[in-house]
Amino acid sequence: MLELVDLHRRFRDIVALDGVSFTVPEGRIVGFVGRNGAGKTTAMRIALGVLQADAGEVRWRGGPVDTAVRRRFGYMPEERGLYPKMRVLEQLVYLARLRGMPKAEARSSAEQLLATLEVVGDPGARVESLSLGNQQRVQLAAALVHRPELLVLDEPFSGLDPVGVDVLSGVLRTAAHDGAAVVFSSHQLELVERLCDAVVLIDQGRIAAQGTIEELRVSRARNLWQIRLRDVTSPWWEVIPGAAPLRRDDGVVVLELAPSTDPQRVLDVARSAGDVLSFGPVEPSLQELFREVVS
Amino acid sequence: MRGAADRGAWRLIAARDFWVRLRERSFLISTLLNVGVISVLILARASGGLGGGAPTFDLGVVGGPAVTSVANDAAALGHRGGVTVIVHPYSDQAAADAALRSGSVDAVMTGTQLYGLESVDQTLEALVQTSAHAAAVDAVFAKHHVPEAQREAASQTDPLALGALQPAPPDRQSNAGVAFIGVLLLYGQLFGYGLWVATGVIEEKASRIVEMLLSAIRPRQLLAGKIIGVGVLGLAQLITIAGFAICLAFATGARFQTSTAIWAALLVIGWFILGYAFYASLFAAAGSLVSRMEELQNVIVPINLTILVSFIISIGSLQDPNSTLAIVASILPVSSALAMPVRIVLGAATGWQIALSLTLLIGSAVALVPVGARLYAGAVLRTGSRVKLRDAWRAA
Fold first, then answer.
1. Measured CA distances, A201 to A78, A193, A275, B179, B269 (Å)
2. What is the ipTM of this complex?
3. Which CATH number applies to A2-218?
4. Which residue of A229, A266, B94, B310 is most buried, as measured by CB atoms within 10 A?
């Protein structure tokens, strides 16, 4: 398990991290979400040892993270980077060996990954000659080639086409299934919701919420109900005490009910107002939870 | 285990940098250029064109037998000193001047004048003036009927014995040629390979791969690997060129002492290692401050100038290796890598000067590595505008 414990970091007058703590268990995929400048990249860089924290610590499997431990981590920085003139396979083998993997093993692992990630092109070609999408896949291969125990990916989905998104999702699931701890940042919240076992929400250098999406929903529990009526535009709910409209769109309205208000009473009123097409509780999406948390 | 893995990391970095640079076209070009320049210098020396041989002068003479006699005396005098003077009599001054203009003669002598096209070589002038003076004295003796025996006695005074408080080695002149080639090579290698370190740092920063690398290894390992990889290539190139130069000098019979050439080559190689160790971490730190190749020139100007000024002082000290400037430059670590080997080859450096120079250079090279590494670590991840030295120092 990766543990970030009370990390603080300032850049001159800007507080980038203000007591950030969260964990990434092995075998799990954790989504790391927050607005631009919230501190995601800083936290990830500190976890990788690329940047030093002013205070706080990073632990892996309960122990401190030193060079030898860090070699078993995989990283995909937000600022993508490879040697443009180095050949694809040669580069992957080199990066794997830098992390202590023997040459032959590095080579077979690199070849296998290029196939899994469906990198099109000659493995002997220079990286700069590949299309951007393929370069992105090689970048991912560079993070995975040494079979890391922890994968830290900064915006891995940005710039990928839908097929690339599916391939990457599959690769991350496989890595987690094989026992790796996976954490990635993303602005694509539906994707995070679909892929991640848990979510960490960071806002202005502080963790605003964390847990499984279910836990977040429960902790942010609001009694929301959505009703769709045919051809009714009048504010029929105004007669119900303890029912406030959250949003309305044509015949659809989402009401937040006070704990004492019985949903069945709402249905009765709705039926008297017109034909009820649908009626049911609403689960907030991650997007909605996110908006609520950071607003 | 950690130690073993760390060692492996810098070796991988060094090996990559070595092979990548070796395969670059600029490496091939610089090797060929070096070999070409050195071949020209050595061949020129082998044919005596670089002042290695005894000088020869063509002296045009206009006038009667008395004038011709003075010219012949000058030639005889020159012959004793190993200088050849060939006398060309001309019927009139216009013919002599034409010969001077066409370059057939180096100077023209009349009964009253000695002149060249632009100037007269000092050696030739001294020979002619001495002969003219002797002829004048002879004429006075003749006028006063001084007996032949006394004339002989007057003209055969013992010359003053020559000596020197600090005698220069007898072959300093030929050694200066060796030292010149050596310092030229050193300058090219120190500057060229230092620049390659800086370029390599910027390449990794500009392509952003540096963040990938630093998630796997420490900045110091990355820096050490890069400096060692590029340096070993520079060393290999230097050894190749020096070997080629010695073989060529030997084969063409250039007027070097072979032992001096080998000794000079070893000196150049040794001082390259020290000088490179001193400058390379500065080059790397400078490179890490900027993010684009276009900005490289701005940050390396101070290092460039230091090496260039050291080079100029070293060339100057070929003439006067014991001037205060030459001595100071050969001891200060910022310039000693270029200035000291020259003085050693010329036999001018004393033991304590060499010891002090070595101590200072090695000491400051060792001290600079962590300074360079800290600046590098503090700046290398910051892309965008140029990083200030102070910020880089604090960020690490």
1. 18, 12, 40, 68, 59
2. 0.80
3. 3.40.50.300
4. B310
